[in-house]
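Work Package 3 (structural annotation) set out to generate three-dimensional models for the target panel prioritized at the project kickoff. During this period the team completed the workflow that converts sequence records into discrete structure tokens, so that structures can be stored uniformly alongside our sequence database. As a representative example, we reproduce one entry of 512 residues exactly as it appears in the project archive.
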Amino acid sequence: MLLSSLFGGGGGRAYSAPARLWTRHARQSPTGYSTFALGDTHGDVGQARRVLAGARLVTTRGRWAGGKSRLVLVGDLVNKGSRSLEMLRFARSLSTQARRAGGRVHVLLGNHEPLLVAAALATQKLDARELRQLARHQRALRTLHAAEPELLRALAFAEGSLARAIAEAPEYGYEAPLTARQRRLLAEAAKPLRAALSIMKRHRAGAIWTCFVGNLGRYDDARALARDHNLLSWLQTRPLMGTLAGDLLLHSDAPKAYETLGKTVLSANRRARRLMRTQRGAYQLFDLLTDRGGLERDKAVSTLLATYGGQRVIHGHTPHERRGPLVSARARRLDIDGSLSNAFGHDPGRGFVLLARRPRTPSKTARAKASDLDAIYQIERRSFSRMDAYDKKSLGRLIGQTFVVRAGGRAVADLVYEIDNKTFGMPSLYVIGIATHPSWRGRGLGTKLLQRAEQHAARRGVGWVYLHVRKSNANARRLYRKLGYKVAATERGYYHDGEDAAVMRKAVRRSR
């Protein structure tokens, strides 16, 4: 939003063309689902909803509609814009909804989230009189904006802090000579601001409040977050960085900050979580993540990727005005802070990027090869309990009796069988196991494999195809019934945990 909404003034300019999804640098996903990344939103929840709805990740009402897709918000969801708390609640709600649908929404910490947390924790120490003084300071900024919006914008986005610009040197960051009226308004705004800073200094939070005001933080947001303990706790436990679909995702282009916090993704995230628990720690984290420009050289990018893993680094933090991400280091670094938020007072850029495109559902089945064994074993481990899963050696012996579906040259679903001449008094094909990698479920791969097994049985002159299925596995039983399988018997205590198994079979017409 424009500064008119930052400080509660009149309506700002309405942008009719929301930022679009940038797809030029998308790769084929190795995991079976699409991965998206959204740059710094800075409290502009309306713009965030528009771009996500444009990619069909959310509905027009802001509900998750992305299925199993992955979305990463790379930090700086708050400050500058007027709807920071609403943006946080929107992100938290999306995360919950996506998980229920099998997808994920990952919210990373930027530098503005720790600053907001530090300010919120600082307000918890204030008494009623001090809180009223901070509220007066907020009203003074609103009055200043209503009278001189361009002046306030120039001061807010100047090098340095808004607090310094108003309270210490009104001319700082504003090129045009100040009029007598502007000087008077700045002087009036400076009085409550100095009082607020004095209060915070008494509570050892003067530097925090100076930075918070200088980054267009709102007292109302800090106070509301301090009162909303669930939202505060959720924000304090967000990760700092992570790897997904071969990409390293983080907020700041300051690699030394992350190296200071930990030498692995896990250790850095743990350290950040500890710092976010306290006012001092959160401000320390803000200070670390504020640096910029540490990834200008290819060597710095290579070192960062070697330390934390990944083939590309995706970050925000440093805004640019390109119509797509800022790409460097031989396409191994993407800066996606495309000034997405309308808080910057110009048409929004493209800070929304498709990182990995969901591959098309494979349609062909094939006989397994020895090179498929590792992938089949991983599918087995992801699909069954330790007691039910076959070990790698056993799967290796059965590799000649296995059908697979491959995607990108790697097996993503498999069916293991054997020919049985005893169970039904005639040759039958017994499905020992059928499994699909979790990332590829719901695409009909199990159906394709069963159909391939039935065709093989028909060519071999086999009269039945049968299998065992847990009584509790309603989804699998529903699928088998849909394909024409019927329950022939029940075997008591068939599984290691004592659960019964239904024996389901289907008659196969022999090929002539």
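The longest strand covers residues 410-420.
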